[in-house]
Automatic annotation (TrEMBL):
Name the UniProt record assigns to this protein: Prenyl transferase
Gene designation: preA
Source organism, top-level taxon: Eukaryota
CDD domains: Trans_IPPS_HT
Residue ranges crossing the lipid bilayer per the database entry: none
Family that this chain belongs to: Belongs to the FPP/GGPP synthase family.
Necessary cofactors: Mg(2+)
UniProt record, GO biological process: isoprenoid biosynthetic process; quinone biosynthetic process
């Protein structure tokens, strides 16, 4: 399922400005770093994270126009997300992302690591220049969370003892933290009350978890177009996600493939087929839908507006990525 352009219609102009600014903001003096960053942003993406920030700004702004600080926050959010993808691709040894070669594959691992670091540094600079300490505190914690998520994932490769709760916590660090924090930060910039800020944080928290769980399902059922990277990557790298953990409860024979780290030629293919023949994918989808519903409920106390309605539609889009 693709995102309807109607969802983004209230912020169409702001998203156009965002795309233009992203390419200007990566103006590294080093031509290799610039080429690497430019390569990433020209690859595009759904821009869901900045769109959510801008829709929250639209919903909470006391004036008609979205503040420049909100637009800059949306840009910062996308830069941080992109930086995390560069480092993820290095760790996971992915060759493609969003239909193009990854930075480390096109350039080198060294350039990719430096490009990711450069983007994190750029985001920190622009974040500091928002001159809002609460927003700085809220967003800067995300970079720590990314590191925590990567460490947890790295230490749990092929670990069949990982629980669904531990998987969810890791998913928060790797994906939901940024969305939740940026939702809250957008609300902070609008000078809303604490309870409203917390409600938007919850919206982002649950939306982010749902998004990650659906990504993990797509890794198993093979929709590379929706996933943005080759299907089966998580399984091959030993990242045991929710559909795999649920499938293990039904099919203990999966343990033998995981314990030998899919060394035999057909191990990954056979494992995916076994998982598809269990209720693992269905249970993981149910878990994702619980978070989708929770994200929608977090918006219940907000005054209904086109922006709030579109935030709800984004939640439904996440739920329907498997259709």
């Amino acid at each position: 399922m693709t995102i309807s352009h109607d969802i983004f219609s209230p912020i169409k102009y702001e998203l156009f400005i965002l795309d233009t600014n992203l390419k200007k903001m990566v103006g590294a003096k080093n031509p290799i770093l610039y080429a690497a960053a430019e390569h990433l942003f020209y690859a595009g993406g759904k821009r869901i994270r900045p769109a959510v920030v801008l829709l929250i700004a639209e919903a909470t702004a006391k004036k008609i126009n979205i503040k420049p600080e909100h637009l800059r926050l949306a840009e910062i959010t996308e830069i941080i997300h992109t930086a995390s993808l560069v480092h993820d691709d290095v760790v996971d040894e992915c060759q493609t992302r969003r239909g193009v070669n990854t930075v480390h594959y096109k350039f080198s691992t060294k350039v990719a690591v430096l490009a990711g670091d450069f983007l994190f540094a750029q985001s920190s600079w622009y974040l500091a220049n928002l001159n809002n300490l609460e927003v700085v505190k809220t967003i800067s914690k995300v970079i720590t969370d990314f590191a925590e998520g990567e460490i947890r994932q790295g230490l749990s490769h092929f670990d069949t003892n990982i629980s669904v709760d531990e998987y969810t916590e890791k998913s928060f660090y790797k994906t939901a933290s940024l969305i939740a924090a940026s939702c809250k930060a957008a609300s902070i910039l609008s000078s809303t009350q604490k309870n409203i800020q917390n409600n938007f944080y919850l919206y982002g928290y649950h939306l982010g978890l749902a998004f990650q769980i659906i990504d993990d399902i797509l890794d198993i059922i093979g929709y590379q177009e929706s996933l943005g990277k080759p299907a089966g990557s998580d399984l091959k790298n030993g990242n045991l996600t929710s559909p795999i953990l649920f499938a293990l409860e039904e099919k203990p024979e999966l343990y033998s493939f995981i314990n030998r780290e899919f060394q035999n030629k057909e191990d990954t293919k056979r494992s995916i087929q076994i998982i598809k023949n269990t209720k693992g994918v269905e249970k993981a989808r149910d878990l994702a839908l619980e978070h989708v519903q929770a994200s929608i409920q977090a918006l219940d106390k907000q005054n209904m507006s086109p922006a709030i309605s579109n935030l709800q539609l984004i939640s439904h889009y996440v739920a329907n990525r498997l259709n």
